[in-house]
Specification:
Layout: E1 5-8, H1 19-32, H2 36-49, H3 58-68, H4 73-86, H5 100-107, E2 112-116, H6 124-131, E3 139-141, H7 148-158, E4 163-167, H8 170-179, E5 183-187, E6 200-202, H9 209-223
Parallel strand pairs: 1-2, 1-4, 2-3, 4-5, 5-6
Helix pairs in contact: 1-2, 1-3, 1-4, 2-3, 7-8
């Protein structure tokens, strides 16, 4: 039977906080032998939080600082992978949007809930358990290769019904879905200043709980066979 699907990004959407990004910066500073890199990364994250459009997200902010210190691509990748091993541990904890577990539990009654992230699988399951999200996400796609990879995921899901894609970076998390006719929800620092037109937007996912629930309810009604709608 057709059903609506909500596709969630991970970093910056379900998992909040800069601690994993700071772990990345710390590994880079150690590799470069220069702790000034870490301090500059903290400054870059502060600029991101203040709305600086120079950075896509926290990882991009740290990456740009590291490149300015002539850190190699090999070292960048090694530090990133090390930081993902830290994910969900005391070295790189994450927090959930307020009320996330309850929201997902309610949503799962009427929608298929999917994770689609560019992050490698390392640490993600541990973090999802800590966030209270693991039991509600019945399909997971890690290292998906956004933006192109998201399009492939959404296209397949659209064959089963309407899709809403939720994330914090328009070009990676939403644009591929929008091009296929899916609904979109933009969260995070760029939501208030984007020139794009997502279906809905909010500072955090928690700001959109009501809107997402309303979308799912409407989409679920649309997928019913006409003979089932007489009541």
């Amino acid at each position: 039977m057709p059903h609506p699907t909500v596709v969630f990004d991970f970093d910056g959407t379900l998992a909040l906080g800069h601690r994993p990004v700071l772990a990345y910066a710390s590994h880079l500073a150690d590799a470069a032998g220069d702790r000034r890199l870490f301090a500059e990364a903290v400054d870059a994250l502060d600029r991101l939080d203040a709305g600086d459009p120079e950075f896509l997200d926290g990882y991009d902010a740290v990456r740009q600082v590291a490149l300015a210190h002539a850190v190699s691509e090999v070292a960048l990748e090694a530090a990133y992978q090390a930081s993902r091993q830290d994910l969900g541990t005391p070295a790189a904890p994450v927090t959930a949007p307020e009320g996330l577990a309850e929201f997902l539990a309610d949503l799962a009654d009427d929608a298929h809930l999917v994770l689609a992230t560019n992050a490698p699988a390392a640490g993600v399951e541990r973090a999802l358990v800590g966030l209270g999200a693991a039991e509600h996400l019945t399909e997971r796609h890690c290292a998906v290769g956004k933006p192109a990879g998201l399009g492939a995921v959404v296209e397949k899901l659209l064959s089963d019904g309407p899709v809403l894609s939720v994330g914090d970076i328009w070009d990676y998390d939403l644009a591929p879905a929008a091009r296929l006719g899916a609904a979109t929800a933009l969260v995070g620092p760029t939501a208030s200043r984007t020139t794009h037109h997502p279906t809905m937007r909010g500072t955090t996912l928690a700001d959109l709980y009501g809107d997402i629930q309303a979308w799912v309810a409407s989409a679920a009604r649309e997928t019913l066979h006409p003979t089932d709608r007489k009541a």
